[in-house]
Amino acid sequence: MILEREGEDLAADLSQDIISDCSVVASLCAAFTREQKGHGSLISCIIWPQSNGIPVTSPTGKYVIKLWLNGFFRMVVIDDFLPASLGDSKHALHVVSNGDPSFILPSLLEKAYLKAMGGYDFPGSNSGTDLFCFTGWIPEHLFLKGNPADLSLDLAEPLSLWERVYKTWQDGDVLMTLGTGVLEDWEGHGLVGEHDYAIIGLQEVVSESGRVGRWLLVKNPWKEGGVWSGPPFMDDDDDDDDDDKSEEDFDNPGSGSDEDSDSDEDAYPEELAQPTSRSAFWIDLNSVFRYFDSIYLNWNPALWNHRYDWHFNWSLLSTLAKPSATEHLWNVPGCFWGNPQYKLVNKSPSPSKAWILLSRHLQRKEAFDRKNLWNKNGHISLYLFAASGKRVYQSSGYLKRGPYVDSPQTLLRVEVPANTTYTIVVSSQDLIPAESTHSFSISAFTSIPMLFEPVEEPYPHISTVQSSWTISATGGNTESREYGRNPMFKISLNQPANLMIGLSIHAKPSRDGKSVGKAITTENTASPLIHVALLHSDGGRRVHTLTRNKFLANSGEYKRFFTFCLAERVPAGAYTVVASTYTSDQYAPFTVTVGSSVPLSPTAGLTIIPNEDAGLHTAFSKCRLPAKTCSIRLYMTRLSKGKIRVVKKTTGEYLRIGVWENGRKRWTAGGWSDDGVGGDEGFVEGVARLEDVDLQPDREVGETWLVVDSMVNEGSASGSAPARRFDGGFEVTILSDNVVKFWSDWVETNT
Fold first, then answer.
1. Catalytic-residue membership of 494
2. How far, CA to CA in Å, does 83 sit from each of 10, 75, 93, 631?
3. pLDDT 10s digits, 538-594
4. Is the predicted pLDDT of residue 240 greater than 80, yes or no?
5. What is the number of helices (H) and of strands (E) in the chain?
6. Residue 333 burial (CB < 10 Å; 0-12/13-18/19+)?
7. Residue spans with biased composition (Acidic residues) (predicted)?
8. Which of 94, 141, 195, 438 is catalytic?
9. 306 belongs to the catalytic site
10. Domain spans in the chain, listed from the N-terminal domain onward
11. With 90 as the cut, is the pLDDT of residue 171 above it?
12. For 654-698, what is each residue's pLDDT tens digit?
């Protein structure tokens, strides 16, 4: 049993057998390659005991391995026992050095890593993540395939990638591995699908004609795996023509042009004719982009002069300081209210680059299935905003974002202009809001000094209330005549405050007004467009009619899933919050969340204003008479206090209503102005209301009649515009504490 070995072929000599840890073995191959190139110890030095930096055999059989786990280098203790297959000497349950099976250093490193991951029944990872754990080097995942329209993928291009990595790889400052996607046997040309490979060599060769060949020496870590059988080894001339692409095609890896010139044999490295081992092969750069899905780069953090680290917990059931205050927001599409956010400040007069690395920690073993320690049910991403370091509440308007990946790490490369402050937002999709809190580390790597710190929450004091748009509580948008039927809420402030009011939908919408409960997690064009407004009101009462001066703040255009408004320096008092949908025929549960800059006392905060008909008797009638003035008799057996609302849906008509008792006008609303246009200021066109009307029984005041008077506005104050016929068609609703009945048909009346 030895821990040290000399030779130049160690990386190409390691192999994976029946354990599904190709990413681990590929990582070891890439790391040992760097050491063999003379760039110093990188992976051999993470095991103890040592002598002068060289690992030695432990007399106790115990070893300590240093791995980067959950934001720090941590100690993993193992013994020297390795698993064996009972009665089967042909297969190994650990990584093996084929040239010298007694060399067990790779096996011990593999054992330590798999111990941290839960055991030898390892479900697989990616080699960028594994190398990050072994070395702490910055992982970068580049996609070689994908939809070019998805800018978040930041698809790599052959020449630009080669220029980034070639010199750096020669200097030993980047490790490289590859990953395939799903491949059928016939389309892989010897490559294995959903498998990781190590890059153990790069070479440029210039032919006599001046053509540059860019080649990668790739190692298949699987003992039983094949090697690349593509050009120049392919026997099929048609395939040769298809895969041998000219230099111009390197900028367009997916073109698949058949008009390329024949390959230059002298452009191939000499080693190509003699593969270094049965599991290593040369492949041209263009073929890498054609047949592999991903390339994983791990960069030496010493390339950066400055590093800033933050470690944080993110409980998806409690995204802000107040426990469970905004749990409904954690998976609302487009909502960033409770997301961890950081500001990146470049105070220098010169622009500079920065890399932001987000790393998700391993979860508690008992919280997740052992085969799912990284919780691959979810995805993470980073967003960049030009928000001057202020908190961001919606995902729209970003400058740049990374793809949502199920890997534990994601990297965002940023160019920071001089004297600029950016906001970085951590985002997730479909993470399990499990029993345990999700833990992360976020790191910024910069060439010049910068400031990198959490963004302060300007509205730390939270109040929430849940409600629903239903058939009896929905009134449409701010232009609707029935806007006052929308759900409303009273917010009381004991002292001046800055407010943020958010409105979020947390269930799929319905058109039948019934309860719906399935959470919305993906964009759905059928989901309501929503809006929230903060209104001046008489002590936080229900608002029935809108005028411009009633708006204290509103969320602007109607949006889906989540919207918000901000109100600065709001005086102490009571106000009304209105939640509305663009149309009045959509129903869904929702939540209103108010964030305040000052504490909300128990007597303040957010409370539901009851619907207008709550606890009251309702009487409803439609009038279809084409008459200017119509009336109907009301009947009560007891004194009733009520509200009367008349809605006329025809545009250009104004209303006034009155209640006559025994032939005498008692209550009126609407009125007439001097120019003959009906409707006092404060009334919505086509809607007239009477509030707090005392309706007395006939035995006390005689007959009681409701009179509705209409006036057409033809756009001419002089009255010269031609008259048009009244179309009738208004609706009357009476809400009262005792029963009120319509006691006759509608009749035309002269007033």
1. no
2. 22, 22, 6, 94
3. 778 888 877 788 899 999 999 999 999 999 999 999 999 999 999 988 889 999 999
4. no
5. 9, 42
6. middle
7. 234-269
8. 195
9. no
10. 10-136, 142-299, 304-454, 462-609, 617-748
11. yes
12. 778 888 887 777 777 654 333 333 344 333 467 788 888 888 887
| CA atoms of 439 and 311, how far apart (whole Å) | 7
Adjacent-strand bridge partners of 62:
79
Q: What angle do CA 550, 553, 559 make, to 5 degrees?
A: 120
- Architecture in CATH for domain 304-454: Sandwich (2.60)
Whether residue 378 is predicted with pLDDT greater than 70 in this model: the reply is yes
| 636 close to 739: Cβ distance less than 8 angstroms | yes
Quick check: 366 pLDDT over 60? Answer: no
Show the tokens assigned to 735: 């809400």
CA neighbor of 74 nearest in space, from 61, 63, 83, 65: 65
Residue 726 has pLDDT above 90, yes or no: no
Amino acid at 51: S
pLDDT tens digits, one per residue of 412-454 = 999 999 999 999 999 988 777 655 678 999 999 999 999 999 9
**pTM score, whole prediction:** 0.81
**What residue has token string 């509440």?**
393
Q: SS3 sequence, 601-616?
A: CCCCEEEEECCCCCCC
Write out the two tokens for 91: 């297969």
| Amino acid at the residue 19 | I
Structure tokens at 563: 């919207």
Q: How confident is the model at residue 336 (pLDDT cuts 50, 70, 90)?
A: very high
Decide: 17 and 93 in contact? Cβ < 8 Å: yes
Cα 475–Cα 728–Cα 707 angle in degrees, nearest 5: 85
Report CA-CA distances (Å) from 347 to 357, 452, 652. 21, 12, 59
DSSP annotation string for 402-431: PPPBSSSEEEEEEEE-TTEEEEEEEEEES-
CB 352 within 8 A of CB 406: no
Give the three-state DSSP class for 360.
strand
- How is residue 535 written in tokens? 């209104």
Hey, which bits of 447-587 come out as E strands?
451-454, 461-469, 488-493, 497-505, 529-535, 551-554, 559-560, 562-570, 573-581
**Interatomic CA distance for residues 641 and 260, integer angstroms:** 89
Rounded Cα distance, 11 and 2, in Å:
16
Catalytic annotation present for 544: no
The answer to whether domain 142-299 and domain 462-609 are alike in fold is no
The reply to whether CATH 2.60.120.380 applies to domain 462-609 is yes
What CA–CA distance (Å, rounded) separates 421 from 389? 6
Catalytic residue among 22, 29, 565, 623: 22
Can you identify the CATH homologous superfamily of domain 142-299?
Cysteine proteinases (3.90.70.10)
Tell me if residue 76 falls in helix, strand or coil. strand
Q: What is the CA radius of gyration of the chain?
A: 36
Residues near 126 by beta carbon (within 8 Å), at least 6 away in sequence: 23, 141, 179, 196, 294, 296, 407
DSSP string, 585-600: T-BEEEEEEEEESS--
Q: List Cβ neighbours of 443 (8 Å cut-off, separation of 6 or more).
A: 307, 308, 309, 310, 356, 357, 359
Specify the amino acid at residue 198. A
Cis status of the peptide bond prior to 49, with omega within 30 of 0: yes
- Tokens describing residue 367: 């919280």
Residue 336's nearest CA partner among 510, 662, 19, 563 is: 563
Q: 2.40.30.10, 2.160.10.10, 3.40.50.2000, 2.60.120.380: which CATH number matches 617-748? A: 2.60.120.380
Residue 570 identity (one-letter amino acid): V
Length in residues, the chain: 751
- Among the listed residues 220, 300, 331, 611, the single catalytic one is 220
